[in-house]
């Protein structure tokens, strides 16, 4: 399933906003996936679709990642698999927004702030 870069960017922006306002609280599975991907980003290398799929396929948590985050990450993995789209301006912008979301989730405390 291919999701347009603009849709990925928009969904990431919505989740960033909801998280910042406190209207969406990530669960433990969301946070674990974000931390795993944040560690990939800390290497300074670009995020890959395979890294995202690996983070999502980790040990089955008691509660799965929320549907919105999981769907967004799967769509981002698909976008990253298509180098032509991922390297274009819209693709880079979408991935940047997803990375900002991952940063916010990975660095937030589990009590919501």
Any descriptors?
mainly alpha; 113 residues; 0% strand; 69% helix
Question: Can you walk through the features of this model?
Answer:
With 113 residues, this protein is mostly helical. 69% of the residues lie in helices and 0% in strands. The chain contains six helices and no strands. The protein has helices at residues 5-21, 28-42, 49-56, 67-81, 83-86, 89-107. The N and C termini lie far apart (34 Å).
Summarize the SSE layout with pairings.
Blueprint: H1 5-21, H2 28-42, H3 49-56, H4 67-81, H5 83-86, H6 89-107
Helix pairs in contact: 1-4, 1-6, 2-3, 2-6, 3-4, 4-6
- Which residues form runs of ≥5 with pLDDT under 50? none
| Number of E-state strands | 0
Strand portion: under 5%
Give the helix/strand class.
Answer: mainly alpha
- Average pLDDT metric: 88
Whole-number radius of gyration? 13 Å
Element pattern in H and E: HHHHHH
Number of helices: 6
Helix content: 55-70%
What is the overall silhouette?
globular
* Largest sheet report: none
Cα(first) to Cα(last) distance is 34 Å
């Amino acid at each position: 399933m291919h999701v347009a870069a603009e849709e990925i960017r928009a969904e990431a922006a919505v989740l960033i906003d909801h998280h910042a306002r406190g209207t969406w609280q990530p669960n433990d599975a969301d946070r674990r996936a974000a931390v795993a991907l944040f560690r990939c980003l800390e290497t300074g290398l670009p995020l890959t679709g395979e890294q995202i799929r690996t983070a999502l396929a980790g040990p089955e948590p008691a509660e799965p990642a929320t549907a919105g985050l999981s769907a967004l990450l799967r769509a981002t993995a698909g976008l990253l698999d298509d180098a032509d789209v991922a390297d274009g301006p819209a693709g880079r912008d979408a991935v940047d927004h997803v990375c900002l979301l991952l940063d916010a989730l990975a660095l937030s405390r589990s009590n919501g702030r």
